[in-house]
Amino acid sequence: MNENTPTGQLPVVVIGAGPIGLAAAAHLIERDIEPLVLEAGPGAGTAVREWGHVRLFSPWAEVVDPAAEKLLAPTGWVRPDGVSYPAGADWAGLYLQPLADVLGERVRYGARVTGVARAGRDRIVDSGRDEQPFTVHVTTADGGEQRITARAVVDASGTWSTPNPLGADGLPALGERTHATRISYRVPDLQDPAVRARHAGRRTAVVGSGASAFTALALLAGLAKEEPGTHAVWVLRRGLSGSTYGGGEADQLPARGALGLRAKAAVEAGHASALTGFRTAGVEPAGGRVVLLAEDGRRSEPLDEVVVLTGLRPDLSFLSEVRLGLDERLQAPVELAPLIDPNQHSCGTVYPHGAKELSHPESGVYLVGMKSYGRAPTFLAMTGYEQVRSVAAHLAGDHEAAARVELTLPETGVCGGAGLFDQPGPEQADGGGCCSAPVAPQLITLGAAPQDSCSTTGGC
């Protein structure tokens, strides 16, 4: 197929074979629209597999897309117990890869998208623009180049490949690149002997205040019980408050609430100490270790390792030739941004949204899933599944179904985000915020709840 092929016969290119990209393909097929999924990695859920040791805080019932399940059913696939919590590896191996296998040749691996444009039009040209199909430029695993023609583009590539840096101003801290061998941007997999050796009996800074930071603190606290001398230094840009640990027992996602309580227990047990109001500006060597420097001149103690978990951001580089309408702060679609602003919303107070809120000045281009949230951390998989259901309906011309977006989400829990600069947590600030976390969460017995539940993707 090329630029002369009638647009209606062209596929919809879906970028990314993760949970939302594969769900998008399933919904498109349900609407008799041919998808073509382009995945940079060697298999389905490549990014998910990289945090395969981390357990989600949503159960199986909430992380399987309905249209995808319909595609899988004829193969004999049965959804795992709906009330159990998968780890990333489970999600990828037991659901995402089987789904990709059903899609067959509609999924191409080792296909990295390097550019999206209108055929024969750069972003400046108006004439005949909307009548032209899209061209999607791809590099393959063997170094080859291809150009694919598409009727629409659904970008579900996520944000995993572009973690936020250590620097509090959104840029790499001075010395961050120089000392890269001591700095990582992922929740450590302590089941890996090499990773375990980097942290056992050593002092590790954990920078961040969301679910990923909670997970790292809990894992390092567990290691401290087995390996003397292991200690975590929790680096927070704000002070500790009742909201720091999330919703606790009040969280409608119990595993997420339990995760925050485990981080709280790590601090109270002395396995982690908190360095509050610390906005990192630099990294300096210190006798075989490193020291973090704050904007106010303070210095951390010498550290062996630094784990930076300050969120993720979208890679927009390959979309430079299409016309996107993005919020100047969140880098999310302009109509969606006020609905997901982490200063105002938790995962559950996000208004249901679909194709309308995800649209851009360039018709036919949609950012979905975690990428649609830009820098906001309040995304849940259920939200993404509803997004692609609506987008598929819109592309099929069923505008009534596209507008009929219905979704009920858990309201309480981790808001994430920066909040008001140097201000108390939401329940203390005048006028509040959205997260009604209890001021003093109480420790609970976790029982059968997963002991490492969280999401490194900002939700799920």
Short description:
This protein is of the alpha/beta class and 460 residues long.
Name the features.
460 residues, alpha/beta, five-stranded parallel beta sheet, globular
Q: Calculate the mean pLDDT score and round it.
A: 85
Helical run tally? 12
* Main pleated sheet: 5 strands, parallel
| Secondary-structure class | alpha/beta
Provide the succession of SSEs.
EHEHHHHEEEEEEHEHEHEEEEHHEHH
Q: What are the segments in which pLDDT stays under 50 over at least 5 consecutive residues?
A: 412-458
Task: State the separation between the terminal residues, measured CA to CA.
Answer: 37 Å
Q: Would you report the number of β strands?
A: 15
Query: How much helix, percentage-wise, in residues?
Result: 10-25%
Question: What characteristic shape results from the CA principal axes?
Answer: globular
In terms of DSSP E residues, the strand content is 15-25%
**What is the alpha-carbon Rg in Å?**
22 Å
Strand order of the largest sheet: 3-2-1-7-15
